[in-house]
């Protein structure tokens, strides 16, 4: 009966480890999902900045017309 008890304890240990691994996997998945959203947001902001820089490089008069000259 000792072998059966040992076997049952090993099964319980494996089930416990699996449960912890499932929780960890879910946590990691949530972090990766959040990071993906942040990456998408950063890509969008970067594209906006790229367009603005390109516009200013091709037509410097696109700047703020009400902006005072640099010597003020």
Element layout with pairings:
Elements: H1 2-58
Structural description of this entry:
The chain is mainly α and 72 residues long. It has a domain of 42 residues. Helices cover 79% and strands 0% of the residues. It has one helix and no strands. The termini are far apart. The relative contact order is 0.05.
Task: Give a nutshell description of this structure.
By secondary structure, the protein is mainly alpha-helical.
**Biggest beta sheet attributes:** none
By DSSP, the count of extended strands is 0
- From the helix content, strand content and strand pairing, which structural class follows? mainly alpha
Global shape = rod-shaped
Gyration radius (Cα, Å) is 29 Å
Provide the low-confidence segments as ranges. Answer: none
> What's the number of helices?
1
Beta strand %: under 5%
Q: Report, as a whole number of angstroms, the end-to-end distance.
A: 93 Å
């Amino acid at each position: 009966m000792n072998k059966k008890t040992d076997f049952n304890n090993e099964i319980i240990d494996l089930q416990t480890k699996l449960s912890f691994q499932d929780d960890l996997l879910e946590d990691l998945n949530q972090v990766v999902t959040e990071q993906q959203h942040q990456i998408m947001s950063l890509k969008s902001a970067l594209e906006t900045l790229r367009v603005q820089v390109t516009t200013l490089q091709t037509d410097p008069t696109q700047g703020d017309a009400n902006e005072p000259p640099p010597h003020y």
